[in-house]
């Protein structure tokens, strides 16, 4: 492991800066499922029907696979290690994540962006109501929900949690659609919890699996993934737009460069955003700021590994789950206790936790580049790292 730490949670600091710029196949040609609100037991069951053929699902699956292959290759690889029953759900979720992440760069004004976000909120609600829009992500999500209903023998309590999490995910993406900076590290972690960790909660619920310890692990890993995603975006978002004369005929709408690192860290190390936009990686203090943010992501991965070790040893995870009791995170006694049931839950949900491997892979390559986010090289070891993690059951 390349992370050399001066203490338990600290990465090796960057060297002094030198000059220069650095299938779920449906059982028939159409499907329907029933959704009952668990919060209102007296409410009659609403049977929702939508005609989504096998051919529709196959086309939607192909579309989402192609989107991930070209736009989120890490997720494309992780998908192959997930249980077959949740692969369609994972495809739909990550394709939706990719669509929403691209919105700030593909819309010409905030009003259009808000309309697109509202479309996705309505699409999720309509999909749960049995009337998915005729677009790939919604149809594939609908097929995944139909499969979940079949496995649970109906629309169980996990449906309400999944619906809530998806709406929270879209709302958080909308809140940060203008690429506003994070005031501090806590705000960045809250963003990561409401996006990347939330997608992991949905994937676990689609198994279906409800376990406080597994959700707790997913929270730490999701936060690490969200922080790593912000670091990955620095070379793209902080780079100035090409000159008008060099723009392609169908180029993206013009935008101003942005730096999304927490403002308190930038102020503490003396980074000026204007310097980053003009000088790129040569901006004074930038590598130190990246180092501090990357250290927090690495902290979450270290914590997840220690928790995993403790749970398997039959011990307490080491600290309380801060989101216990929140919407979607209420657990029966058997969902949060140790013992064989918890170990079985961990075994069932482990492959969802493999999201930690791409995050660790990026952080390792970032450290190799001396925390210069502009010089991180692509890696070829990720498929092997995922296979090894699955085989050894270690993250």
UniProtKB/TrEMBL annotation:
Q: One Pfam family this chain carries?
A: SQS_PSY
Segment Disordered: which positions? 18-48
Q: Give start-end positions of Low complexity composition bias.
A: 18-45
Q: Which SUPFAM superfamilies match?
A: Terpenoid synthases
Q: This chain belongs to which protein, by name?
A: Squalene/phytoene synthase
Native source organism of the sequence: Sporothrix schenckii (strain ATCC 58251 / de Perez 2211183) (Rose-picker's disease fungus)
Query: In the record, what lineage is assigned to the organism producing the protein?
Result: Eukaryota, Fungi, Dikarya, Ascomycota, Pezizomycotina
């Amino acid at each position: 492991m390349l992370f050399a730490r001066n203490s338990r949670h600290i990465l090796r600091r960057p060297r002094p800066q030198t000059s220069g710029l650095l299938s779920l196949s449906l059982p028939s040609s159409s499907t329907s499922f029933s959704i009952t609100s668990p919060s209102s037991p007296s409410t009659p069951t609403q049977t929702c029907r939508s005609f989504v053929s096998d051919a529709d699902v196959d086309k939607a699956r192909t579309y989402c696979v192609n989107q991930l292959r070209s736009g989120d290759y890490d997720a494309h690889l992780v998908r192959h290690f997930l249980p077959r029953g949740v692969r369609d759900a994972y495809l739909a979720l990550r394709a939706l994540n990719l669509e929403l992440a691209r919105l700030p760069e593909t819309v010409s004004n905030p009003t259009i962006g808000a309309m697109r976000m509202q479309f996705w909120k309505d699409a999720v609600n309509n999909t749960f109501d049995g009337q998915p829009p005729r677009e790939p992500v919604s149809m594939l999500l609908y097929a995944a929900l139909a499969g979940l209903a079949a496995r649970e023998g109906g629309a169980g309590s996990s449906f309400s949690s999944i619906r809530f999490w998806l709406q929270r995910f879209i709302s958080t993406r909308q809140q940060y659609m203008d690429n506003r900076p994070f005031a501090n590290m806590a705000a960045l972690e809250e963003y990561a919890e409401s996006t990347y960790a939330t997608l992991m909660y949905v994937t676990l619920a689609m198994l279906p699996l409800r376990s406080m310890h597994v959700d707790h692990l997913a929270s730490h890993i999701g936060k690490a993934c969200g922080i790593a995603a912000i670091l990955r975006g620095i070379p793209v978002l902080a780079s100035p737009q090409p000159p008008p004369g060099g723009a392609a005929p169908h180029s993206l709408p013009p935008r101003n460069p942005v730096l999304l690192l927490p403002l308190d860290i930038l102020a503490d190390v003396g980074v000026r955003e204007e310097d980053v936009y003009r000088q790129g990686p040569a901006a004074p203090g930038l590598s130190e700021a990246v180092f501090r943010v990357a250290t927090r992501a690495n902290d979450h991965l270290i914590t997840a590994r220690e928790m995993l070790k403790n749970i398997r040893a039959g011990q307490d995870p080491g600290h309380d789950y801060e989101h216990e009791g929140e919407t979607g995170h209420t657990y029966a006694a058997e969902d949060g206790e140790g013992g064989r049931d918890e170990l079985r839950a961990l075994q069932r949900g482990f492959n969802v936790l493999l999201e930690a491997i791409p995050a660790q892979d990026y952080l390792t390559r970032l450290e190799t580049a001396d925390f210069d986010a502009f010089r991180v090289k692509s890696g070829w070891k990720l498929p092997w790292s995922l296979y090894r993690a699955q085989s050894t059951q270690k993250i």
